[in-house]
Amino acid sequence: SFSYEDFIEGFRPNVDDAKSSSYVLDDGIFKRACDIAKDNDGRKVIVIIDEINRGNIPKIFGELISLIERDKRGSSNSLKLAYSKDDFSVPENLYIIGTMNTADKSLVQMDEALRRRFVFEELMPEPNLLDNRPAAKYKHILEKLNKKIISGDRMRQYRDKQVGHSYFWNIEDDNGLRRVIKYQIIPLLQDYFYDDYTEIKGILGDKIIGEDN
Questions:
Q1: How confident is the model at residue 103 (pLDDT cuts 50, 70, 90)?
Q2: Which DSSP string do the residues of 57-118 spell out, in sequence order?
Q3: What does the pLDDT read at residue 196?
Q4: Global confidence as pTM
Q5: Relative to the CA of 199, which of 69, 70, 166, 185 has its CA 20 to 30 Å away?
Q6: What distance in Å separates the CA atoms of residue 140 and residue 21, rounded to the nearest whole number?
Q7: Beta strands at 45-49 and 94-98: parallel, antiparallel or unpaired
Q8: How far is residue 93 CA from its own chain's centroid?
């Protein structure tokens, strides 16, 4: 939902009675992060953008999309900002981490200009991270669940739709497990398999889902 004015700079209503203007030019979060990075040259400054593939990249970055490239960093590659007309550059010690969920297939519509400016690291479910939590005794359920989701011919189509370990993260007892399966796992599988209960039954078993219920 961000725009250029939220992310870089833009005019906002003036809430300071000491100023006569109704609107003031305010820095967005990315510009502020760049300023912090420039003032702390020896440190790494990180901006995390959640669900980065859902944003309208041309509207958010504007002409600055070119400046986040590795060989366009630094003051020698500055551009003038649209509102303030200040020279702006992206420092080399600023790192951008974008997260996304590829299961919703929105990666396909991801802006090509953004896609080629990032490296990609796939994060698959890691059941072993549950070992030191109360949910450790249910780890085998998660492992078997994912094994069934990608079994046989489904491997290619559903590889990125395995159930993440975060669903099990806060489970402490059997009742917690039941709630997660009933209110999170089953609706998730209904969405994945388009309410094909024969498929869902094949994953969860007859004791959880019957053909008539």
A1: low
A2: HHHHHGGGGGGGSGGG-SGGG-EE-TTT--EE---TTEEEEE---GGGSTTTTS-HHHHTTS
A3: 85
A4: 0.77
A5: 166
A6: 63
A7: parallel
A8: 22
